[in-house]
Amino acid sequence: MLPPPSPPPPPAAVYSPDHLPQDPADRLPIASYPINDQDAVRRAYIMKGPNKPCPQAFAKRKIGTRDRSFNIWWFHKYHWLEYSIKNDAAFCFVCFLFKKGGHNSPFTNNGWRNWNRDDALDKHVGKVGSLRNAAQERYISYLNPSAQIDDVIVGVDSEERRLYKIRLKYSLRCLRFLLNQGLAFRGHDESEESKNRGNFLELLKWLASNNEEVDKYVLKNAPGNCQLTCSDIQKEIIQCCAMETRRKILEDLGDDHYCILADEATDVSHKQQLAVCLRYVDKLGRPIKHFLGVVHVEDTTSLTLKSPIQDLLVGHHLTITQMRGQGYDGVSNMRGEIKGLKTLFMKDSPSAYYVHCFAHQLQLVLVGVAKGSDECEWFFDQVSLLLSIVASSCKRHDMLRNVNLQNILKAIEYGEIHTGQGLNQEMGLARPGDTRWGSHYKTVVHIISMYPAILNVLISLGNDIAQKTDWPKIRAMVLALESFDFIFSAHLMVTILGYTNELSLCLQRRDQDILNAISLVGVAKNRMQQLRANGWVPFLQKVTLFCNQHGIQVPEMGANYVPFGRSPRHFPIQTNDDRFRRQIYIGIIDHIIQELDTQFDEVNMELLSCMPALNPSNSFASFDSIKVRRLAEFYPNDISSSDLIRLEMQLDNYIDDMRREESFQGLNNLVELSIKLVETKRDIVYDLVYLLIKLTLILPVATASVERAFSAMNFVKNDMRNRMSDSLLDDCLVTFIERDIFFTVNENDIIESFMSIRRRRPDSNKK
């Protein structure tokens, strides 16, 4: 029976290191590619290098009476060797690229797996004239490790080489500027007669007007087929910029552990894009987040999401077994216990613990409160009606701005408010987003701050005969604004959303760690308890003062409650105190406390409950060696049973040293402790303790970095650039989001990568 035919090779446009499979078992034979493309494929694989995952990826299986696996030291002795995670087998990288003819070897066919017979490695190398050594000679003669531009441009004299360097250098510099700013490259009309040929050509033209070298050699005297300005050349340079930026990030990570943060969103062309970020601890002991890439996915089931994430990681020499944390937004396809994405990854890496995004959990708390309280629903319905009235025309917006400005000027004149930089800024009433409760807080704050102006505008509109068709809505809104129910709810929402908004902003900080996040959630719960126990009197005084200032009648708390704008049939007979204090104030606060306990249930998870034992605050007052040892047991692949014995001895020395050493006094969080351990070289002395600190810092707090990537995606791929390909979008996002890393990439490194893609001639067909 004949074997099934190999799938057709990809088109030449994707012969780049990022788009070719990393695992040797997934690769197509070089001979299966078109003869004219084989050179480009070889160069792309050489740029990727042999697949050499970290030791955690090596599977064990029983051979004879012993469990054996691939030996990491073979990589150091046999540089041509690579490992397939998919097949649990070793392959020869050189033979894959250059072997010609001869019998099929396990190292080029299905892979070598006889780990107990390492003499097979020497037999594969063979004698001087062996097929493998012949492939090695072709590899050496083909390989150009320095990729100098003088060597890869063939068949030209030194002057042509010099001019080619100049043209490439300035094209690269223009593209680096545009990538850094997230701007488009091409124009609608790039012909010579066009008045605007696009950002890239116009920037090059401007550069020529200020640089004689550019004017003389790049635009005027360059051969028509070698100006290095065409769209294909631009994309190749951009691809190399992204490659070098990622290389910087991955070099910083090395073989260390990492956590992934992932989320999906729809771009402007209605494609579902999956963004992936990495979180790890760098060489200085700091937790770092970096954007890795964005991948187009056709659906968002857990199985469909795992494949592109895994391909993206493996394609950049990262293995799933290195993963020590997962962070998603918490939907069922992500966090499901049976078939969720977190479960699929934990099958491959059991210590890749999942933490639900804390900021998203806080969002769910607020959504639960808003939907579970009739008073909250009524209040936000009134806010929505108010915004629809004001936002229906620009004229009404201008009226509101002008009235508010007059009120501010009058208050300044009477000395009621102060002036200064950043004070008394122009405000408006923006419609809050359904998924951004920080915007609800901002809207309610603006309603209270602009209350007199809003009321004056509504009264003016209610008396304007030209607005007669809207009189019912406008006059109903005036009645609502002048009711105690609305003012009470507005101030309660400002109080509650104000505290939760501060918590949300803290959770989304880039340098936040899991211990601080747990502490902040505890602070939020404690603050709600304080508001419930002691906050009613000052809160009511604040609401009463506001009502007295604006002529709003405050009901007697002992009198019977009369609902505003709603039928009394739906409300029990109760006093105003029962309604406003017990049912609304205490009821909503109790609901928030309950939702905080429900949504942040992971805080009670044993893994997270052990982590505060490493907290250095108050001179390591929370230190508990039993909890630290229990924490170590959650990572059996990193800390073995023998290491646990050593950890017990190490912990005694560690805590004694920390409490005696003056430089470790006054540390407030785990990040400061990690940095200080590296600075004092104690990360080497207390290696197991430092490993646990790193594993704690790796765990994610929020997926804000992924959401920032989507904001960047909407900026880069906008309505004017909606036909941008997925690969170009990925390259542009990496350089735009990681612009700080991109700025440090050496220009010569990008040029070397560009010249390594294929051999080039100044008389190439591409411009």
From TrEMBL:
Residue ranges of the region described as Disordered: 1-24
Bias type Pro residues, positions: 1-12
TTF-type domain mapped to chain residues: 66-152
GO molecular function: protein dimerization activity
One Pfam assignment: DUF4371
Protein name: TTF-type domain-containing protein
Top-level taxonomy: Eukaryota, Viridiplantae, Streptophyta, Embryophyta, Tracheophyta
